[in-house]
Amino acid sequence: xxxxxxxxxxxxxxxxxxxxxxxxxxxxxxxxxxxxxxxxxxxxxxxxxxxxxxxxxxxxxxxxxxxxxxxxxxxxxxxxxxxxxxxxxxxxxxxxxxxxxxxxxxxxxxxxxxxxxxxxxxxxxxxxxxxxxxxxxxxxxxxxxxxxxxxxxxxxxxxxxxxxxxxxxxxxxxxxxxxxxxxxxxxxxxxxxxxxxxxxxxxxxx
Length: 206
What we know:
Layout: H1 2-5, H2 14-34, H3 41-48, H4 52-58, H5 62-85, H6 91-111, H7 113-122, H8 126-147, H9 156-179, H10 182-200
């Protein structure tokens, strides 16, 4: 599946890499302005200042650009996840860090409109849906590896499943929260964080 998410022609020279970056930046800007459905490939090429033929050399269609943008967000979130969970030694610290991660993930969607639209596009693209699930699985493994030393051995299998569920359900909870008005969305995320504390983090023996 990863092969469907990469660009058609991988840039190797600095000039080509810079062109791809301009294309992705232009797409992100246009998505923020009008939403992904309204963006056309010709508009992306024009905003990026590249010939339309050059655009198609790297990206065969708009979903390919969305997949690349989605991958970059996923990588960014994963690096933040690893950094935030590094060196946790107590269950109390784990509870605080997990809650901060959920709060920060919601804030990402609130403050960056292009991220919201990219994630909306995921729901209508089968390739992106599979990519999203795999991302949740990998992120769940990151959480599991970071916190498994705090979990009783008899609960490890259940905890691993719970980590996967946490990552996938968090995405669903955030998408719901941003689909309603901000006040209701804030309440929904507050309750979701509370549910996580009660049900998921309880596996840590806290």
